[in-house]
Structure formats: structure tokens, C-alpha cells
Amino acid sequence: MNKACSGQISARDVSERKEMNCGIHGVSFSSSATPSERRLSALARHLISPTESCSCSASGVSASITSSDVGSVFSHVARAPEDPILGVTVAYNKDSSPVKLNLGVGAYRTEEGKPLVLNVVRKAEQQLVNNRSRVKEYLPIVGLAEFNKLSAKLIFGVDSPCIRDNRVTTVQCLSGTGSLRVGGEFLTRHYHQRIIYIPVPTWGNHPKVFTLAGLSVKSYRYYDPITRGLDFKGLVEDLDSAPSGAIVLLHACAHNPTGVDPSIQQWEQIRQMIRSKGLLPFFDSAYQGFASGNLDKDAQSVRMFVADGGECIVAQSFAKNMGLYGERVGALSIVCKTADVAGKVESQLKLVIRPMYSNPPIHGASIVAAILRDRTLYDEWTIELKAMADRIISMRHQLFNALRDRDTPGDWSHIIKQIGMFTFTGLNVRQVSFMTREYHIYMTADGRISMAGLSSSTVSHLADAIHAAVTHVA
Ligand SMILES: Cc1ncc(COP(=O)(O)O)c(C=O)c1O
């Protein structure tokens, strides 16, 4: 029988590792386990979650061996379920309806529903192509030096004390995901506390990235479904009971999937609490500029934590704000107390990166560096970025108005209150599947819709679908 499906891996793992428990996300390890033991256990649990029975049918895992499989050394490999977010696009692509609408994907679309390459990116690329002196040599392990310096300035501010004092190390990584993973791997190896707290809900990849990096994932309350706003009391209570030194993952702005951010006053209280308890903040900054249209404003939360002189970690992505999704451009910054520590941290980051992918790709980072170094291109970028943010905000208003015009039952004001690319609609899983079945509208099962995937011409179709879902499906 299929080894994974027989439960051999998980059963042995679980029985051998008595200290492993199934807390939130089923992830918790003794601190005595080595990183590779922890990773192996985590991997086994990803292959078989305790709720997956031998037939594995509930999760779409199929282990049946067909005649064509016989003889393959891989015939025991079980079919894994689609990624819950990227799987939405897979389902959308299979739908032949002319009215189909994909609101699952977290990528910007124009009013015409098309992917957008920013003009400023095209200009920067043209400059790169025209420069005959450019070669395709390997980058250093930590990436393009100028990109790293400019990325740090972008998130921390040009006059940031951590840059002035040379106590931040920034390394180019594979977009936001790669930056989170490298940061997680570094913490597993070199930080005394292996517990990371992530908000509920959060981007679906967070628990997987950190678990496989060797950290133990726990959660803190973040979203209140009743108010459709921040559960600030729950957040404070949960972080207050976190063990000293625990890592706390914070979305720098435009929280995904809820679109709910703390106010500046709440950020200040969070900062005070994190510092007083000696917790380690790890920011995920995937939407700088997308929330408000202003790069500095969207970096405010991060800058508050740097201004107090304490340490923090930041994973930056240029996927959304420069539209460089597939170029995989991002950066990991670790702000330390001294330049000496920052230098040592960087030397260890190289040891994390080298055996993982050796060094990062050159093209995307060169585009970013070309834009950030040049005042004219930078200004053009901010204008295009603001236009994207404004279009998203306009879609929020159009959808809200369309539901109001239809007298759709319920309070929909959260659509205009939430921030960034996504609206967490509050639609339940049955209503979501009704909308997909009857209206060919695709979104994640938690009712998250990408406002960037909507346009003036598709708003009424979405509003009709939401109206029908809430009036016909409980
Ligand atoms: C909160 C959050 N973090 C990180 C990422 C990673 O994106 P990428 O790896 O494409 O930069 C995303 C992408 O959707 C995200 O929403």
C-alpha cells in the first residue's frame, strides 16, 4: 500500500516524538529537536494531516494505482490537493463561460481585466537592454548590492537611524515568499525562541513557510467576524500571553486576507507591548504603496518599530507594488542593535541562502534598482502606483453602491472600510460555491475577493451574485 496513505510516516513520527503536539495548525515541537528533524516531521504532517483518512478522498488526495503506474518507482506518490489560492485560478481556467470572473488571484488587473506591466518598468527594462556593458554573471549570494541598499531605504525611510548606523542587513531574496522563508530558516538556526505567532486569519502560505523553515507556528486573534474589523482585545490578550522572546508576524499594511489594519494608535500599543514583553517583530510587507497609494504612509508601522531602537525583521515584496510578480524580486532586512551584529547576521544569512538557491536572479532586481535610483523614474512609479491603489478604492465604492442600489440585505460598509487589494466579504463557503456554480465567479473559499480583479464592467455581475447568494443561501 501507498506508504503515505498507510499512515506509516505520520504514525511513526507522532509516536516517536511524544513532545510533538497538535496545537493550532497542528504544529509544535520540542525545542530539543534539530532543525532537520523538525522539518522532516513538518513535511510528514503536510503529506498526511491527522484528519486525512486512508482513502484520502476528503482532501482530494488520490492514491489509487492505475495500470499505467505499475512499475514506476513513484507509484506510491499520492496526488496532492491544489493550493487553496492558486487552485482558484486552475478552476477558473477550466470554466468556458463567457461571464466568468476570477477574483481569487492576488494580482492587479486593468479596467479591461488585463495584467498590467507598468510603463516605468518597461522604461527601466529598455535601459537595461540598451546598456551593452551589462552581463549575465552570477550575483553575490546576498544579491544586487544597490538593490539591497535602495530597498532598505524604501521601507525604512531615507533618513532611517538603522541605515545611518549601518545596523541593518538587507539581502535580496525570491520575492516576499522567499524573504519570509530565508528569515524563518535564519531564526530556526540562530534565535533562541522557535515559536512564531501569526494572525488568524492570515495569508495561507504563512503557516507552511514557517513550519517548513523549522519554526513552531501558533496564532493570535486578529479579525472579528461580527464587527468585520480588528479584534484588538483578542490580539492584545494573545500576545500578552505569548512566551518571552516569541516571534510575532505582523502584516505591515493591507492585511491579507481581511483588509483590516490597526490604526496608528493601535500600532503604538502593539509596539509597546511587543517591546515590553521582549517579543521579536517580523513584518511581512507585501503591499507597500497599495494600501493608501503612499509608500511612506504604508511603511509607518515598520518605521515605528525601527524608531524605538529595537530589533525587527522585514520581508519585502516588489510583486504587487511594481507589478513584478513573476520576476520574484524581494528583500529580507534584519535590523540589529549594532553594525557588528548586523555584519555577523549577514554572514549567516549567506549560509542559509547558498545551499538553497545559491544566489538570486539578476533581472528583476536590476529593474527595481533602476527605478529607485532615478528621481524621474521613481516619481513616475509613484504616480502609477497611486493610480493602481485609486482604481482599487474606486472599485470598493462601486461595489458598495451597487449592493446598496439592490437593497442587498446586510451591512456592506466593510467593503469601503477595508484596505488594500482584498475585501473579506463575510460570505460563507456555501454562498461562495453558489456564486461559482451559478455566476461563474471564482474566489477563495473564505469569501475573500480581489478588488484588483474587478472592473466597472463586472461590478454589476458581482453585485447580482452577492445579492442572490445572501438572499437564497444561508
Ligand atoms: C501577505 C502576503 N505576504 C507575502 C506574499 C508573497 O508574495 P510574493 O512571494 O509573490 O512576493 C503575499 C502574496 O500574495 C501576501 O499576500
Automatic annotation (TrEMBL):
Give the protein's cofactors. pyridoxal 5'-phosphate
Known Pfam families for this protein?
Aminotran_1_2
This protein's UniProt keywords = Aminotransferase, Pyridoxal phosphate, Transferase
- Tell me what reaction this enzyme catalyses: L-aspartate + 2-oxoglutarate = oxaloacetate + L-glutamate
Q: Which GO terms describe its molecular function?
A: L-aspartate:2-oxoglutarate aminotransferase activity; pyridoxal phosphate binding
Q: Which GO terms describe its biological process?
A: amino acid metabolic process
Q: What is its EC number?
A: 2.6.1.1
InterPro entries recorded = Aminotransferase_I/II_large, Asp_trans, NHTrfase_class1_PyrdxlP-BS, PyrdxlP-dep_Trfase, PyrdxlP-dep_Trfase_major, PyrdxlP-dep_Trfase_small
Per UniProt, residues of the Aminotransferase class I/classII large domain are: 100-466
**Single GO cellular component term:** mitochondrion
Give the highest taxon in the source lineage.
Eukaryota
Q: Which PROSITE patterns match?
A: AA_TRANSFER_CLASS_1
Q: Which family does it belong to?
A: Belongs to the class-I pyridoxal-phosphate-dependent aminotransferase family.
NCBIfam families registered for this protein in UniProt: PRK09257.1
Q: How does it assemble?
A: Homodimer.
The note filed under miscellaneous reads: In eukaryotes there are cytoplasmic, mitochondrial and chloroplastic isozymes.
* Protein name, as recorded: Aspartate aminotransferase
Which organism is this entry from?
Answer: Trapa natans (Water chestnut)
